[in-house]
Design brief:
The complex is a heterodimer of chains A (about 500) and B (about 80).
Chain A: E1 3-8, E2 13-19, H1 22-31, E3 39-41, E4 46-48, H2 52-66, E5 74-77, H3 82-93, E6 98-101, H4 104-107, E7 123-127, H5 138-141, E8 142-146, E9 163-167, E10 177-181, H6 182-196, E11 203-206, H7 213-224, E12 229-232, H8 238-248, E13 252-255, H9 257-266, E14 275-278, H10 285-295, E15 298-304, E16 308-312, H11 319-324, E17 328-329, E18 334-337, E19 342-346, E20 353-355, E21 361-362, E22 371-379, E23 385-390, E24 394-397, E25 400-403, H12 404-412, E26 417-430, E27 434-443, H13 451-461, E28 470-474, H14 487-492
Parallel strand pairs in A: 3-12, 5-6, 5-7, 6-9, 11-12, 11-13, 13-14, 14-15, 27-28
Antiparallel strand pairs in A: 1-2, 3-4, 7-8, 9-10, 10-20, 15-16, 16-17, 18-19, 19-22, 20-21, 22-23, 24-25, 26-27
Chain B: H1 2-16, H2 41-55, H3 72-80
The chains are: A alpha/beta (about 500), B mainly alpha (about 80).
Chain lengths: ~500, ~80
């Protein structure tokens, strides 16, 4: 199904319906009276949709002067700035294939970054963060570098046009490269825009990285193809966020649970948001309730790097529906629960393949286009999905199946404990007990609890087989740039 | 008085925030954010909460800007005027 922007005359704004090609979206945005004065901004500079055509032409001139031949795949080190966003739009317009990478400064925070730039990339594109970067002068913010590549014939999937490659964020294990078509990513974005009921009247702030698919697909592209005004924010903290709010006055925001918590603690005034979308790790019920009550409608969305948009709540769903589920399946997505309780998904706009660094296709155990998400979930009669936790977070202890998220929830109920992540260590399987469990606990401020006390408390609230073997108190959870908890970093702390 | 406030702020940073720095390593002109003491988003939020508790006042939303958090001198001056 293709999408296009349609004008809703009665309401007087644009809203993405059935989209055609990216250049047609660009045409509507730059010319419609409802969008042409809307803009994309990073706080330092802003570009109206009307100015887009000119900016994209300048980018084209820059590229034609820099490259001798049409690149196959560009390694694009993206960041949350206007120049980077315009470059993204340009790459989509040109159907230039690229791999989306974090900016160099953030790369060491990601696991396994050694293998960052795949060997099939022939150019590297970086965005300057200097103050002199002017979005109307590509040479002031872009650096295109030819990479040394071997000239052996490349697999078709890495020479094709219109692809976007993404490394799996890999909160566990090694990273792979995922191939998407740019058109599918746009279709996913339009699907999101429709679910969120975005319009060109919205002012959307994106403080999550646009070099991850949540920030790019659910956030930036869905707001962009709606013609909403967009404010990108990098290095988000409470000061930069409140500063942005005063100037931009957003009514829609793309958050993670950590950002929800930041705003709840840091901002005194209530209200202001039509809609806040959260994604990533599960959000605690108390945080969801307090945030929704104070600032406006909060919804969670569920997607994956491989399968794109899977489910999201609707802003018009009741509070209880939004609290208890991540909403219904996106249009065109079929969902089912496997016999083991895992959520299975047949997406309309899913990924094409897994690749290794040479561009060779990795095997992918998929039957009839049904993918296993690896998450345990339930679907109620109305079709609303509730994600329970990672399926691989289910371990066998003394013959009992234990869900690690259940243990986490129980320990979080101990007075003085704020947040808990339980991990299992397979290598240290103990005789008769199953895998060893370690609970990482962040304590509430001023809490004087120690590991021993938490563990003795566990004996009152958990069955013997579910009591973690070790409790470790930590100051804060290590967070990946995509907002998820860095489980690998937690495990490393045990070594 | 800013001169009595600064030692308290230094103690908060070194002992209560998750920052790897000692009291004697902090000087009054060091930027609090990125290139100086390097308080990250979580640490800034904690710092604000602890300042409010220690000095018994609340920042209004409009006071939470980069200006008072430039360095310890500026911050102490701001707190002294509350």
């Amino acid at each position: 199904m293709l999408y296009y922007l349609s004008l809703n005359l009665s309401l007087g704004y644009l809203r993405p319906n059935f989209m055609t090609r990216f250049d047609e979206i660009l045409n509507s945005l730059t010319q419609s009276q409802y969008t042409k004065n809307n803009f994309i901004s990073d706080g330092n500079q802003q570009c109206s949709y009307q100015q887009l055509t000119d900016s994209l032409n300048k980018l084209q001139r820059y590229f034609s002067l820099q490259t001798i031949q049409q690149p196959n795949c560009i390694a694009f080190e993206c960041n949350n700035t206007l120049p980077a966003a315009l470059t993204l739009v340009f790459l989509f317009q040109q159907q230039q294939s690229f791999i989306l990478l974090p900016p160099a400064g953030d790369q060491q925070k990601e696991p396994d970054f050694k293998a960052s730039i795949p060997l099939f990339c022939d150019y590297k594109l970086t965005i300057s963060t200097e103050k002199t970067a002017n979005f109307q002068q590509p040479e002031s913010f872009l650096r295109l570098e030819k990479l040394n590549i071997d000239n052996s014939p490349k697999p078709q999937l890495v020479t094709a046009q219109g692809k976007i490659y993404v490394r799996t964020s890999g909160s566990m294990g090694a990273a792979k490269i995922i191939v998407h078509s740019q058109q599918y990513l746009l279709n996913n974005a339009a699907n999101y825009a429709q679910r969120y009921q975005l319009t060109s009247d919205d002012k959307v702030v994106i403080p999550v990285p646009i070099f991850h698919l949540y920030g790019l697909g659910a956030g930036f592209l869905s707001a962009f193809c709606t013609g909403a005004s967009i404010r990108l924010l990098k290095r988000t903290n409470i000061l930069s966020y409140l500063d942005m709010e005063r100037k931009f006055q957003p009514n829609v925001a793309f958050f993670t649970p950590a950002l929800c918590e930041m705003l709840l603690r840091g901002r005194k005034k209530s209200g202001g948001y039509r809609l806040v979308i959260t994604s990533g790790d599960r959000i605690k019920d108390a945080l969801f309730c307090d945030f929704d009550h104070k600032f406006g409608t909060l919804i969670s969305q569920y997607g994956s790097t491989e399968m794109g948009a899977i489910a999201a709540s609707n802003p018009t769903d009741s509070f209880q529906q939004r609290l208890k589920s991540t909403g219904k399946a996106m249009i065109g997505v079929q969902l089912a629960i496997s016999s083991k309780g895992e959520l299975k998904c047949k997406p309309q706009y899913g990924f094409e393949a897994y690749l290794d660094s040479h561009g060779q296709t990795l095997s992918n155990p998929v039957i009839d286009n049904w993918f296993t998400t690896g998450d345990l979930a339930t679907i109620n009669a109305a079709g609303e999905v509730t994600i329970l936790g990672r399926a691989d977070n289910q371990v066998n202890r003394s013959g009992f199946l234990v869900m690690l998220t259940d243990i986490e929830k129980k320990i979080e109920m101990i007075t003085g404990v704020s947040q808990v992540i339980v991990l299992s260590i397979q290598e240290q399987e103990q005789y008769g007990r199953g895998q060893q469990l370690i609970a990482f606990c962040v304590l509430q401020k001023k809490s004087a609890l120690n590991s021993q006390q938490i563990r003795s408390n566990c004996f009152n609230i958990l069955p013997k087989y579910a009591i973690p073997d070790k409790i470790k108190t930590i100051n804060q959870m290590p967070i990946l740039v995509n907002g998820k908890i860095d489980r690998q970093a937690l495990l490393n702390q045990m070594e | 008085m800013p001169s009595t406030i600064i030692p308290i702020l230094k103690k908060i940073i070194a002992e209560e925030l998750d920052v790897n720095i000692k009291v004697e390593e902090i000087n009054n002109e060091m930027p609090l954010l990125e290139d100086g003491i390097g308080l990250d988003s979580v640490a800034i939020m904690e710092f604000i909460v602890l300042i409010e508790k220690n000095f018994d006042f609340k920042f209004s939303d409009d006071e939470l800007t980069f200006e008072p958090f430039k360095d310890l001198n500026t911050l102490a001056e701001f707190i002294a005027n509350k």
